[in-house]
Design a protein that fits this description.
Order of helices and strands: EHEEEHEHEE
Distance between the termini: 16 Å
Oligomer: single chain
Strand order of the largest sheet: 4-3-2-5
Largest sheet: 4 strands, antiparallel
Radius of gyration: 14 Å
Number of strands: 7
Strand content: 25-35%
Length: 132
Amino acid sequence: MFTFPIAAVRKAIERGIEDAAANGGFRDPYYGTRSGEGERAGVWLVGDEGVYIMSNGRLAEGARALVIYSEQCHPRGDVDWWDYKRRQFGADDGIEFIEAERLLPLFDRNLRATHLNVELTETEIALSLITR
């Protein structure tokens, strides 16, 4: 399971929408292997060096996407991040797209919640909210 502050996830979605409006749409997280999937408002859940959520709008030359690391898997500060990533995400790098239309209504129905939990199985991405 990976945990992210809801306010930060909202900012990543907003940033992706702003970047898309300014730069011609959303980026394709699957590099053409799943054409049309993920090219809309949402975030990418990325397993790489750590696990993080990333904004998905097209970027201006030299710009960087907004990145929010999970509380459990940040390479700076979590000494066992690699083992945790491997157990929960897999050893290979990867990207999973999570639609804004799935996240925002969940957040809006649970205004007291402060954090998003993301759990991966072999077939799905399970989302839940917690309050801290």
